[in-house]
Design brief:
The structure is a homodimer. Chain A is an all-alpha fold. Chain A has two domains: 1-57; 59-198, Tetracycline Repressor, domain 2 (Orthogonal Bundle), CATH 1.10.357.10. Chain A has helices spanning 3-31, 38-45, 49-55, 59-83, 89-104, 113-121, 126-150, 155-174, 178-198. In chain A, helix 1 (3-31) packs across helix 4, helix 5 packs parallel to helix 8 (155-174) and helix 6 (113-121) runs antiparallel to helix 7 (126-150). At the A-B interface, helix 1, helix 6, helix 7, helix 8 and helix 9 of A face helix 1, helix 6, helix 7, helix 8 and helix 9 of B. The structure holds a DNA duplex.
Chain lengths: 206, 206
DNA sequence: CAAAAGTGAGAACGTTCGTTCTCGCTTGCG
DNA sequence: CGCAAGCGAGAACGAACGTTCTCACTTTTG
């Protein structure tokens, strides 16, 4: 019952679990999910099949865990982008596109995991499709919070989200990170236009 | 050697080929490519495996043919949208988003075939990835032509393309066609802003 | 009509899939 | 020490994959 030992054991299992998730994420992301068998993952992660199935009772369960982990990473990236730098909502929104530009520059960048997975499994795995839908709705809701803070109409959030999604797929397919800069420029125009037209030229008393 | 018979035979082969392509497209689009085996396609299309492999020497070849056919359909939709209605480049650009709105309304809409296929196969099938990249570049180039006609700077074409891509993935994942309208509104703002700022308030002679 | 070529239905091939099982070996604990 | 439990390595399972082959039957053709 020594708590130290108990904790160490738990933490080791957690470490292996994390290692498996990282490896699965890398393989799925680079090759697609169906193209990566449990054997390939076993070899790459250096973990026995028994332990694999002990950590994740099925491949679908593992895929969900990978997506769940990615969601956390994405949210961290977004929050870091928002929290770092300016505290003006307009600039915080733009910081999201700067974050995208850095991400697109990574060597193994191949688009958004959620979009890729939706295309591959969305038609046959409703639970995974729902998870992806939820994640995207979450991101849109976060943008909507910031848009509200700017005082612009809520529709702007949808437009900004579409730009972010489009930048990810465009960058992935084209193989360049130009899309992030184009999306940022477009977002700037949309935000500033929304702010300008929302504040009527002849100010009314309030 | 009767030319009529020869032609009829050829045309019948073409009909079967087209029927196979339509069936494969439907199955691949709804379930993903890896999830649809040649047996399932054989059953669904009512064509023998022998004829299937006589028409398409391999599954990858078939996938390429499906994408090639979709590219033609997409180009037709774009050109019809551009040709129908206004002949003002600005409105022709916006007509593309109206076309998207109609497309998103289809019952079996599940996003852009090219984006979905890139996510699933782009990492392992370079030839297919290149085909997809080429198709997207083509679409961007078409937008660029129209943008040039408006007199707006070329960067606008990239922004509009990103909006179109983002609308497709957003509509697919969310399961609504709202994204098309949001993208259209954003496109309107971007185009009009580009046109306004490109024509300086104090007109120069030209 | 007879011979040759082509066809559809589906069995069969070898491989790979997701998952489970076997079997020595280690390990923790009385 | 002895024993139960858990482990890694990998064999094994049934199913499904892409592809090829068999074979009885049409169709074409001289």
């Amino acid at each position: 019952m020594a708590p130290a030992t108990r904790n160490r054991t738990t933490s080791q299992t957690e470490q292996i679990r994390e290692h498996v998730l990282i490896t699965a994420d890398r393989l799925y992301y680079s090759r697609g999910i169906n193209a990566v068998g449990m054997d390939a993952l076993r070899n790459e992660a250096g973990v026995s099949l028994k332990r694999l199935y002990q950590l994740f009772p099925s491949k679908e369960n593992l895929v969900e865990a990978v997506l769940h982990r990615r969601r956390g990473i994405w949210n961290s990236l977004v929050e870091t982008a928002i929290a770092t730098g300016s505290d003006i909502p307009r600039d915080q929104l733009l910081a999201v596109y700067d974050m995208l530009a850095h991400w697109f520059d990574e060597d193994d960048f191949r688009g958004c995991v959620f979009i890729n997975t939706f295309g591959e499994l969305g038609g046959t795995a409703p639970h995974i499709a729902a998870l992806i839908r939820d994640h995207k709705a979450n991101f849109q809701a976060r943008l909507a919070e910031l848009v509200t803070q700017t005082g612009a109409p809520a529709a702007l959030a949808h437009q900004l989200a579409i730009l972010a999604e489009g930048a990810q797929t465009t960058a992935a397919i084209a193989g360049t990170n130009d899309a992030a800069h184009h999306a940022r420029a477009a977002a700037t125009t949309l935000i500033d236009t929304a702010l300008a037209t929302n504040r009527p030229q002849a100010p009314t008393t309030g």
